[in-house]
Amino acid sequence: MSESTKERVIDQLCGYISQLRALPPPEHGLVASLTGGPIWEPAMICEPRLGPFSTNDEFHDCLRHDIPLSIFDKNPSWTWAPSVVHAHSLKYETKATHGDLAGRNILCKADGTITCILDWETSGWYPEYWEYTKARYFPSNGPDWIKRIGLITGEYPDQFWASVNVREHITVDPPEHYIYKEK
């Protein structure tokens, strides 16, 4: 795809995602499917269907497998922990989110005209950073995509790295316990 075609795709995505994010949420802080039910996030969370959550804090607790933020502050060897404490302590607006923006889910003509955005099963009401985090998370999206995703969703690098750190350093086995993985 030429640079001008990529720019055309990005410009259209900016408009579409802006319209999606402008939809008013049913409740401030809600994290749920677009219908208000459980979310489906198989790539990021140990359980495929979770929630709904009344607040971002409840959602963040789930992402951390209910490990309190105070535990992160008490472990100086967890050099990655401050990113999680910072990102999970902030307050966020609730935004309608596609949840899987990637080239494989965007159909377009040769000239870059978008004809369809596919794969809406992970869509829902999420904290404002979620679209950026999810779109940036998978390396298969390529460096061009990673470089441009912030133009579409806004930039949330701190939240992205916090998400990476939670996923890389915390596992649940069995689900009611947590284990810190040394790297």
Automatic annotation (TrEMBL):
<dbReference type="InterPro" id="IPR002575">
    <property type="entry name" value="Aminoglycoside_PTrfase"/>
</dbReference>
<protein>
    <recommendedName>
        <fullName>Aminoglycoside phosphotransferase domain-containing protein</fullName>
    </recommendedName>
</protein>
<feature type="domain" description="Aminoglycoside phosphotransferase">
    <location>
        <begin position="77"/>
        <end position="140"/>
    </location>
</feature>
<dbReference type="Pfam" id="PF01636">
    <property type="entry name" value="APH"/>
</dbReference>
<dbReference type="InterPro" id="IPR011009">
    <property type="entry name" value="Kinase-like_dom_sf"/>
</dbReference>
<dbReference type="InterPro" id="IPR051678">
    <property type="entry name" value="AGP_Transferase"/>
</dbReference>
